[in-house]
């Protein structure tokens, strides 16, 4: 479970006499239970990706606390605790740009398996990589391809397989279906639902499309003017 308490993030903008600050997140409090899909919606620039980046350690919060299974995600000095955050994985909006264009996609997944110590280098990593390809609905022959040789939907599934290689407890989907056609979008959403139901993974589903969010999520938070509010999810 992730608990976010009174989180605020401000950025300094400008210089000298023109220096000021903007606050995309102000006093945000929300909970992400285990095994649930929690929607995070709002207009572009509302602070959704800022929150995702804070959860992944890319940005530091200005104020507030975050707990993962009761452990602090940021220590008393504001430093990201990598051991606590290691099992939070971000699925980006543009999967092709997050993959090494010169690396075969199967090797990218094997690399994640070895780095996270969920597989040993060599045969063990290859076998587990192929099992992940099976699980996310990718043909095994695609493992030998480069990212540029994959469709958007295939690349998105590779990125999901790479995230699963780290044995995550929480996935963050940051507008990861917005660039896909309707059919592929539905397939990826079905895969997310499968991960949550079969593996008990928590999913933070970030999207500006309230129609999709309302149909998919167990609970929904909306960010507007830096403030967050919770609305009813699906029954």
Q: Under the CATH scheme, which class of the largest domain?
A: Alpha Beta
Q: Mind telling me the CATH superfamily name of the largest domain?
A: P-loop containing nucleotide triphosphate hydrolases
Mean pLDDT: 91
What distance separates the N and C termini? 21 Å
The coarse silhouette is: globular
* Secondary-structure element series: EEEHEEHEHHHHEHEHEE
- Estimate the helix proportion, in percent: 25-40%
**Which strand order do you get reading across the main beta sheet?**
6-7-8-3-9-10
Largest sheet composition: 6 strands, mixed
The low-pLDDT segments are none
Strand residues, percent: 25-35%
Radius of gyration: 18 Å
Q: Based on the coordinates given, report the CATH architecture of the largest domain.
A: 3-Layer(aba) Sandwich
SS content category: alpha/beta
Kindly identify the CATH topology of the largest domain. Rossmann fold
How would you describe the overall organization of this protein?
The chain has 235 residues and is of the alpha/beta class. It has 2 domains: 155 residues, Rossmann fold; 72 residues, no CATH class. The chain contains 8 helices and 10 strands. The strands form 2 sheets. The chain has a 6-stranded mixed β-sheet with strand order 6-7-8-3-9-10, with helices on both faces. A 4-stranded antiparallel β-sheet has the order 2-1-4-5, with helices on one face. Helix 7 links the parallel strand 7 and strand 8. Helix 5 packs across helix 6. The protein is globular. The model has no long low-confidence stretch (mean pLDDT 91).
